[in-house]
Design brief:
The structure holds two protein chains of two kinds. Chain A has two domains: 86 residues, Immunoglobulin-like, CATH 2.60.40; 104 residues, Immunoglobulin-like (Sandwich). Chain A contains two helices and 18 strands. In chain A, strand 7 and strand 8 form a beta hairpin. Chain A is globular, with a radius of gyration of 26 Å. The termini of chain A are far apart. The N terminus of chain A is likely disordered. Chain B is mainly beta. Chain B folds into four domains: 115 residues, Phage tail protein beta-alpha-beta fold (3-Layer(bab) Sandwich); 89 residues, Sandwich (Immunoglobulin-like); 111 residues, Ferric Hydroxamate Uptake Protein, Chain A, domain 1 (Beta Complex), CATH 2.170.130; 561 residues, Maltoporin, Chain A. Chain B contains eight helices and 54 strands. The relative contact order of chain B is 0.09. Classes of the chains: A mainly beta, B mainly beta. Chains A and B meet through helix 1, strand 1, strand 3, strand 10 and strand 15 of A and strand 36, strand 39, strand 40, strand 41 and strand 42 of B. Strand 3 of chain A pairs antiparallel with strand 47 of chain B, so a sheet runs across the interface.
């Protein structure tokens, strides 16, 4: 009896006295990388730190003063820090097919990422070059007719990721609707593995010339659009291609068309 | 009306001596209370008209140094009564002018009472066989207890209520027969007693008391001290406990020590650090794989259809296998052998009806059905899981105009139990049992374009499908035979099917002048499990010291899981099947009623891994004194089929089953040991058990894309892939139980101190607290009987559970100028929700209808003080801030239930 009670007592004490073995390891010291390399553009990388939920700050802390190296097809080039966490090399133009490797050390941890610039999209065409949209108020007026969506298509034989983006390039913006909520001169669609995409009339906010871009993206960009959970039951860290960090280091191949939005 | 005859009191000689004792009592209050005092002090059993005796509010009644018999006469003078003592020692106080019913004085054998035989025994060391049944319906009572007073030998009836006692010392001994929820019975053998196929009838006390009351012992809802780690529950008494719309067996089990109650969203059993999938739930011999109705707020078991429930919290017998944590065995009702009976319940959640009848003198039929309806309570729970159902989201990506949503909520659950039992002779029983239950949750919405949209030249319809269905269907055919008084067998063929389908998709049609576009995108999941089983169990009783049990079982599992992202692309199509062959043998040894040990093992061959698995099992009890029991167990358990928890809370059925493959999904096993002690007298039980479990080969599942890109794992697709991670676990704890078994106020206090840790290297280096880790859990259950009322209250306290939170976040600017916010999560389960506590109360009024059965009205309030218990956290970003909001469990929820029984 004594032994039994002793065992129970010891078990009880063992549980009661067990120290908290779970150690919280903060990931808030890991850098966040933001870099989109577009064929024809410069090399630019932005570094910052995550914002802690315990901080009363809404803006990130930028990471300056680092030695950030990008290997272009294994040839190193050191980027120049220009402040606000931005590191650039404007002399090296991004080229499709090139392999770019990011490398730097932060908090004694090697940070790295790699991207290969996709080729320029092939066969990018639009169903129309001009789209006539009647001007309207905050609601439709009976009797109004609206145009069919503009359908863009391209060649995609290997289920690569593409996305459409559009930008009004007029210096003076004229709204299509008097409802100004959510109006924006730039917009894009999420990445798709299809070979067509359509932009309906209500995607556009302004009249005038628009650049419509077709980006060929890498998987790490498509991953940005995947949910990583929103509750304590399913939340996980975001998807990233940064080793020992967060964020994205990616590249695009791009082509563009002009679309004229008229009344 | 004499509703209850209880036969546990004194023999005639003994009561005479008690009545000669001098007593002194100074009493204020009613005569009824005075009789209760005397009853408790001298262990006497009174039977009287409670209404009349309670109404007699005596200011002061002093009994000073009077013989008890004279004190009774004084009470009789006061109440204009006379007292009569029958042959089993019950004292009746009846109207002095009324004739005495001779049945009260000489309780006959048919009423299961005989007096102690005074002569010499004629037979020694003989074998006695019998059966224990319910007096009202003739239902056999499984796992009832039979004790021989002289030798202290104790045996248990089998699943068919049959028992065999070898080497009965002589034919004048007393048998004490008990079954949870029933009045216990003391039976004195005589030389004229038949010793083969004796029928013992036990009776449930009636809830109503229109005329008389017997208050010596009110049968309890639970019995917790017969075997190591075993709890026995009576469904018949559940209606006195508070409930959330339905009296619920599994919810009642969650009030026991070692079974966690802080899971409003799961009817499953979290036993001693285990998870519901680690509990083997058997209904009439077949496995039920999902026990949840309506997101787990209710269990799939209709308590009207269940006769007996046994929960093994660990150290289960070798005849059970395939689960790590516990075994819950449900035995369905067979149906009345004593005429037609029917009844039902209507609550704010569902309607529930049953019918039982003998078909002829050899067969019976039982049918029960239950279906929910969309009352306010159902809606409240449904919306708790589906906030969108309460306020449908508008728009769906259409700017500049408002679309209107029409929700198509059409959700319900139902279950059906049926059992046919045929007894061709006294040796054989054949029964067919069927169970089916399903949930159909439809939260789909149809989005209609605004009226003026028709002028745009586009005809559009858009559907948001959000449909989840899941359920179980099972059936068994059982043949039991008592070959000889010593040999009994039970052969069963069964199948069980669990299915779960999920359709979360958007679809629609766009018709423009010259073209029609149909589209459908989303996720489609389908999980189907089939379990075919054949098994035989044998019991051979060598003698009173030794019973051998052995048997075999063959299961064929067929498990499929499909995951599709749209109507044309199936991402995962997993289909596995395999056989599990198991045999077991165990010996139950009893030495002079003092020491009992069950030693044995289970031996498995699992075809998918081509491996053998051996599970040694030992449990033992030792009666240190009449009241003190020591107990211990040690064993190993294997689990071959696993449930995987999904991560999305709004998925309705949030799990699916997969078969171990020995590779990605290893066969799980644990080693467990428990030690305990108990002290029990006629009024109280004090019980403590400590346990320690080490779990290996655990699996978790994540349907995610690769989180890191680049390097050797570089991938060019975001298609979800199956990702299984493996780990280990540890659970240890101590369960305490204090039960008050007698008196008008009874109930129990349960406390568990426990710790559960997991170790999955994929999540974290080192141990972390498991999702179901609850450090302290305290439960108090009180039931008070007052006239025709049953009052009850439960209070539950549980330490907060761990959860994974977020440490911070960052914003990423996208090429189109927009910004997306990302969260950085904390260490796995590094945070704690607030402590859980809740009080529920209920009041049940029992009614006897004149010649038309009986019933009750039960008023119940769940979460009486409207505690905002935390369920999980929701994270969002608003205006550059990360916002954490808390999703709570149900607040205060009242319910009314009407119950009716013809008999």
């Amino acid at each position: 009896m004594k032994n039994i009670l002793y065992t129970i007592l010891i078990s009880t004490l063992a549980i009661a006295c067990t120290k908290n073995e779970v150690r919280v390891i903060s990931t808030l010291k890991m850098p966040v990388v933001e870099s989109y390399l577009i064929a024809g553009g410069p090399i630019s990388v932005k570094l910052s730190l995550p914002v802690s939920v315990n901080e009363d700050a809404t803006n990130p802390t930028y990471i300056d003063g680092q030695t950030v190296v990008v290997y272009i097809n294994n040839v190193p080039t050191t980027l120049k820090g220009i402040g606000n966490g931005i590191y650039q090399d404007t002399t090296k133009i991004v080229k499709e097919g090139n392999d770019y490797k990011l490398s730097f050390t932060y908090n004694n941890m090697p940070i790295s990422a790699e991207t290969i610039v996709p080729s320029k999209p092939i066969g990018f065409t639009g169903s129309v070059a001009s789209l006539a949209i009647p001007q309207f108020g905050s609601r439709f007026t009976p009797g109004m007719t609206f145009p069919s969506p503009v359908v863009y298509s391209w060649t995609n034989n290997d289920q690569s990721y593409y996305f459409i983006a559009a930008k009004c390039i007029e210096s003076s913006l004229v709204s299509i609707s008097s409802d100004t909520a959510n109006q924006r001169p730039r917009f894009s669609r999420p990445p798709t593995q299809e070979n067509t995409a359509s932009l309906s009339f209500n995607s556009f906010s302004y009249y005038g010339q628009h650049h419509v871009y077709l980006y060929k993206a890498n998987i790490e960009y498509a991953a940005l659009y995947k949910s990583t959970g929103t509750s304590s039951l399913n939340i996980t860290n975001p998807v990233t291609n940064i080793q020992n960090g967060f964020g994205i280091f990616t590249s695009f191949g791009v082509d563009s068309l002009i679309l004229n939005v008229t009344k | 009306m004499f509703a209850v005859i209880c036969i546990t009191g004194y023999g005639q000689n003994k009561i005479d001596s008690v009545l000669r004792k001098n007593i002194s009592i100074i009493h204020f209050g009613t005569v009824s209370d005075l009789l209760i005092k005397i009853s408790n002090k001298y262990d006497l059993k009174f039977n009287y008209d409670t209404v009349k005796f309670t109404a007699l509010d005596q200011q002061q009644l002093d009994i000073e140094d009077l013989k008890l018999s004279d004190a009774l006469k004084k009470i009789c003078n006061l109440t204009k009564s006379k007292y009569i003592i029958n042959n089993v020692g019950t004292i009746y106080l009846i109207d002095k002018f009324k004739d005495v019913d001779p049945k009260l004085i000489n309780v006959t054998v048919s009423q299961q009472a005989v007096r102690e035989f005074k002569g010499a025994p004629e037979k020694n060391n003989f074998t006695l066989t019998g059966k224990i049944i319910d007096k009202r319906t003739g239902e056999s009572l499984p796992y009832a207890n039979i004790k021989i007073a002289v030798s202290k030998t104790s045996i248990t009836s089998n699943v068919d209520g049959l028992f065999t006692i070898t080497n009965v010392p002589n034919d004048t001994v007393k048998l004490s027969i008990s079954y949870v929820g029933y009045e216990p019975l003391d039976y004195f053998l005589t030389p004229k007693s038949q010793v083969n196929n004796m029928i013992f009838e036990l009776e449930q006390p009636q809830m109503y008391q229109s005329e008389v009351v017997v208050f010596s012992k009110i049968p309890n809802i639970l019995k917790a001290n017969d075997k190591v780690g075993v709890i026995k529950l009576t469904p018949a008494k559940l209606n006195v406990l508070p409930n959330l719309g339905e009296k619920d067996i599994l919810r009642a089990l969650q009030l026991m020590p070692g079974v966690s109650a802080a899971n409003e969203n799961s009817a499953g059993l979290y036993v001693r650090g285990g998870t519901p999938d680690q509990s083997l739930v058997m209904y009439d011999g077949f496995t039920v794989y999902n026990v949840d109705h309506l997101f787990g707020f209710f269990s799939a078991f209709n308590s009207n259809a269940i006769k007996d429930v046994q929960l093994y919290k660990g150290a289960f017998d070798a005849k059970y296998g395939g689960r790590l944590s516990s075994v819950a065995e449900f035995t369905g009702k067979e149906g009345s052998t004593k005429g037609l009976n029917f009844g039902g319940d209507v609550s704010m959640m569902s309607v529930n009806g049953f019918l039982e009848t003998p078909l002829n003198d050899k067969s019976t039929l039982f049918i029960a059905g239950r279906r929910s309806y969309k009352g306010p309570l159902y809606d409240m729970i449904f919306k708790q899981f589906n906030p969108a159902a309460a306020s449908p989201a508008g728009g769906g990506g259409f700017r500049r105009f408002r679309a209107s949503n029409s929700s198509q909520l059409a959700s319900y659950f139902y279950d059906l139990n049926a059992k046919y039992t045929y007894r061709p002779n006294k040796k054989d029983i054949i029964s067919l049992s069927y169970f089916s239950g399903s949930d159909d949750l439809d939260n789909s919405t149809k989005i209609n374009p605004p009226s003026n949209f028709n002028n745009t030249g586009v005809n559009l319809s858009f559907d948001n499908s959000d449909v989840t269905t899941w359920g179980n269907t099972g059936a068994s055919a059982k043949w039991s035979r008592r070959w000889t008084p010593k040999l009994y067998s039970n052969t069963l063929a069964s199948f069980s099917n669990y299915y779960s389908e999920r359709n979360l998709s958007n679809g629609g049609t766009i018709i423009r002048n010259d073209s029609t576009i149909n589209f459908k995108t989303g996720t489609f999941e389908n999980n189907e499990l089939l379990d075919y089983s054949v098994k035989s169990d044998f019991e051979y009783k060598f003698n009173e010291l030794n019973k051998l049990e052995f048997g075999g079982q063959l299961n064929h599992f067929d498990v499929s899981y499909k995951y599709a992202q749209n109507d044309t692309s199936t991402i995962i199509d997993r289909h596995t099947n395999g056989n599990l062959l198991a045999g077991y043998v165990q010996d139950k040894i009893e030495i002079y009623g003092l020491f009992k040990m069950t030693i044995g093992g289970r031996f498995n061959y699992f075809e998918p891994t081509h491996q053998y698995y051996t599970e040694p099992r030992v449990n033992a009890t030792f009666n240190l004194t009449d009241k003190i029991l020591l107990k211990g167990s040690v064993g190993r358990n294997y689990q071959f089929i696993k449930r995987v928890i999904r991560e999305d809370i709004q998925q309705g059925s949030r799990d699916f089953w997969v078969l171990s493959d020995g590779d990605k999904l290893p066969v799980a096993y644990n080693d467990q040991v428990s030690l305990g002690a108990s002290y029990e007298n006629k009024d109280y039980l004090f019980d403590v058990e400590a346990y320690n479990k080490n779990l290996f080969g655990m699996s978790e599942y994540s349907l995610r894309i690769n989180r890191q890109f680049g390097g050797p794992e570089r991938s060019n697709t975001l298609t979800p892939v199956e990702t299984y991670v493996q780990g280990t676990g540890k659970a240890k704890g101590v369960d305490f139980l204090i039960q008050k078994k007698s008196g008008k106020l009874n109930g129990w206090i349960a406390y568990t101190l426990a710790q559960v840790t997991n170790n999955y290297p994929a999540y974290k280096v080192g141990d972390y607290y498991a999702d179901n880790d609850v450090r302290n859990e305290f439960k108090i259950v009180g039931i008070y009987k007052w006239h025709n009322w049953d009052f009850s209250s439960t209070w539950i306290y549980a330490s907060g559970k761990p959860y994974t939170s977020i440490d911070g976040g960052y914003a990423q600017n996208l090429p189109d100028g927009t910004t997306r916010t990302f969260f950085i999560v904390s260490d796995k389960n590094a945070n704690r929700l607030a402590d859980y506590h809740r009080m529920d109360v209920a009041a049940t009024y029992n009614i006897k209808f004149e010649n038309h059965g009986s019933g009750s009205i039960s008023f119940s309030v769940f979460n009486l003080y409207d505690r905002k218990n935390e369920w999980y956290k929701i994270f969002s970003s608003q205006s550059s801030y990360i916002v954490e909001t808390t999703k709570n469990y149900l607040g205060i929820t009242p319910n009314v239930t009407f119950t009716y029984k013809f008999k």
